[in-house]
Specification:
The protein is of the alpha+beta class and about 140 residues long. The protein has 4 helices and 4 strands. The strands form 2 sheets. It has a two-stranded antiparallel sheet with strand order 1-2. Strand 3 and strand 4 form a beta hairpin.
């Protein structure tokens, strides 16, 4: 059975980051639909969830690989800054009680860790060599 599925999927796009995002969106919409069951909003969410899952499977089984790849790249250009921002916030929370403070380079947005409690210091970005002054 697995061999038949592999042969079926040969030449098809499969899954990627956009498909993963669509599946997560589908799960969130289904949970919202379950909470709003038997209401007009629940019916709308049900229709939206059907559209999202159909799009998910359409992209999975598509043979137009360059187009699906381009769609995924557009999604990643939008999603990566959001993901990196939350990753930075998580890092800030974990470093809050430590002995280091986090800054972002204004030029290249590289995250830089510097010692806390040093007053105003000149920080040089190790990536782009841009120098800026911040209070630690």
């Amino acid at each position: 059975m697995m061999e038949r599925f592999r042969r079926f999927m040969y030449g098809r796009y499969g899954t990627d980051a956009l498909n993963t995002g669509l599946f997560v969106l589908y799960i969130v919409i289904v949970i919202g639909e379950m909470l709003l069951r038997n209401t007009r909003a629940g019916m709308v969410l049900m229709l939206i969830s059907y559209a999202v899952i159909v799009l998910y499977f359409f992209r999975c089984f598509s043979k137009n690989i360059p187009r699906r790849y381009a769609e995924n790249q557009k999604f990643l250009r939008l999603w990566n800054p959001v993901k990196n921002y939350f990753k930075y916030l998580k890092l800030c929370v974990t470093e809050r009680k430590g002995t280091k403070k986090l800054f972002r380079c204004p030029k290249c947005h590289q995250t830089i860790r510097v010692p806390k409690g040093r007053g105003k210091i000149a920080i040089t970005c190790p990536k782009c060599r841009f120098e800026f002054i911040r209070k630690t």
